Amino acid sequence: MTELFEPLTIRGTTIPNRVWMSPMCTYSALSEGKEAGAPNDFHLAHYAARAAGGVGLAMVEATGVTAQGRISAYDLGLWDDTQISAHRRLARAISDAGSIPGIQLAHAGRKASMERPWFGGGPVAVADGGWDTVAPSSVAFPGYADPAAMTVAEIGDVVAAWAEAARRALTAGYQVVEIHAAHGYLLHSFLSPLSNIRTDAYGGSLENRARIVLEVLDAVRNVWPTEKPVFLRISSTDWVAENQESNGNVSEAWTLEDSIVLSRWAREHGADLIDASSGGLVPAKIPHRDDYQTFNAAQLKASSGVAVAAVGRITDPVAAAQLLENGSADAVFIGRALLRDASWANNAAAVLGARGRFMHQYDYAV
Fold it and tell me: Distance (Å, rounded) from C-alpha 17 to C-alpha 363?
């Protein structure tokens, strides 16, 4: 059961193993001034520790393609060239520790302008230092302020912002870029008919609702080298239809079947791997079973023909390895388990009888 620690080559980039650090917001960037949105010493230590701890890919957290697109004022950003040097330092630290540096580029849409979780979370009003939010339609996330419906020109601007952020990420030394289209943020809110009630070319049919995602993929691919991978994180379902099916009353929402179609289109537009998460668009009941997301990841991989990384409640090395052994996924993204243990990957290697990072240099014990 060592496939988990075999390299994976995507395009011209070889990732040393299949245990990857999931992008997880830390809300630890400076919120204002010339260093706003730039990685600092905290980020350097945080990501380098997980890289040295054995992950094959360290995916840097959601990084705003515009200042307005940050989840909070304390998010990372790549909306300005002045942020490149700090990102270069971070990417180099990850690489020096043995991992491939990746970065998730994001726009929070109607879920932007939030307070940090340890201060209660929730939206921050403009009067309190927040900012106005945007979305495909003026449909608010429950309990949040109404967002402004984006014009077609504004949609074009944000597509261009993704491309510019990708260009900066490349200059900074990142080798993988991931487009965030999950968890109720801007691109996901275009995909789901629960939040997108537009009647123009960006609303209505599945093809129209997916248009902005494919435009972002095209724009990023135009600036991203052919030999380097592009990932797409999606929510495989809103969990709304599944809840309603038990009551025999199903309304439109984003479903696994939609995700399969989107994944096929995404592959045609240059996406190399689907990072299969779920939920986040609206409050919904989510199953408590351990495979609540990995089951959908397996369906995506089997039905779309696209490489898939599974994520969600993956905490046991043997279970992680089995996802690859049984063909359910090509790699695993580890989240909270890596927050608890920066050396989770090396510990997993020891459990599975594989060799982790730096284990040849030290008498390493679990």
Answer: 21
Measured on CA atoms in the order 100, 61, 339, 321, is the torsion positive or negative?
A: negative
3-state DSSP assignment of residue 13? strand
Instruction: Return the active site residues.
Output: 185
Q: Does any domain span residue 361? A: no
Residue range 137-173, pLDDT digits in tens: 999 999 999 999 999 999 999 999 999 999 999 999 9
> What are the φ/ψ torsions at residue 223 (nearest 5 degrees)?
-110, -10
Q: Which domain holds residue 242?
A: 3-352
Which residue in this structure is represented by tokens 């279970």?
319
DSSP string, 113-142: SB--GGGT--B--GGGT----EESSS-PPT
| Total domains present in the chain | 1
Q: In sequence order, what are the residues at sequence separation of 6 or more whose Cβ sits closer than 8 angstroms to the Cβ of residue 243?
A: 284, 285
Tens-place pLDDT, residues 331-346: 999 999 999 999 999 9
Residue type, 172: A
20/331 Cα distance (integer angstroms): 7
